[in-house]
Fold this sequence. Notes:
This protein is α/β, with parallel strands linked by helices and 321 residues long. The chain has helices at residues 48-58, 84-91, 108-111, 132-141, 167-179, 187-190, 197-207, 217-220, 223-234, 261-267, 273-281, 315-318, and strands spanning 39-43, 61-62, 70-71, 74-79, 94-95, 98-104, 119-123, 157-161, 183-185, 210-215, 239-243, 259-260.
Amino acid sequence: MSPARRCICGKSRRFPLCDGHHASEGWSCAAGSPRAHERVFAAAPHDHNLAERLAHARGGAALHRLRGPVHTEELILLTDGAELGPLRQAAARVVAPVRRALLLGVDPALVQPALPDTVLVAVPEPPHPALLWSTVAAALDRPPPAAAPVPASSAPRLFLSHATADEPQLERAVAALRRLGLGVFLCADSIPGGARWWDRILAALRATDRFVLVLSAAAARSTWCAFETGTAMAIEKPVQIISLDGTPPPSYAAHLQAQDLRRHRALRPWLDPDDALIGALLAPIPASAPADDPPRPPGPPAGDPRDDRHPAAPPAEAAGD
């Protein structure tokens, strides 16, 4: 977890990181919270400034300034997806008849299972960090939508296609998504020993709500990443591409815009690599127009299915790329 906070007022000499210069605007991140808690604002540590400024402007309190059980008329969560698990734990000590979450560049469908009693408000990522304050303030002023019930079986499922060499970079992000209640298919741990791995992969592709190609130089060389991506496209699954190292999409996916994780982090230096990846995985993606006559998914590629792996790799790793 990075200790850095993002700048909300735009006056920091280290913008977009905070250096405390917002005190000249009449509010300070070192100020105490008022005793009346008609509204309580909660955010992850890198967005504590946002919670504190909202509390100052709206006559509420920032949750991280309060101790013990908290009672309030309304709890407002502010999240960009990073550290959502710890934020949920902090909010568990708040008793509030109304709970609202402003999702900053986060797909509501992906976090709804984690926040079942909360009204979710999607807030588009502003084109520049300096516009975050006005964007969030405008979202707060709009009447919130009605809360919709969450069916027990509605947890979205994600299929992560990746190179075996990149698995260590995915471990914390995958664990965080699973703690939020999301189903994540990862060949490395989602196929039991002795199972027909191709059957399991095809079943997971058919059942997934979102296909994610975790792109890298190794993944771009992988026959299996290409095959899984092509199959997902053939059966019209929403496809998201996240490039870990700046590798551009290969020819079979060149028509899709990729999220460059290095650029994502450069624009959000308050996030560590794991939190940046979690935020990218939770970002909304546009729906694709349905095809008139979708093609049938192909069979597995011919030749050695282990692609760039060691020939003695067990079945669970045979499709890990």
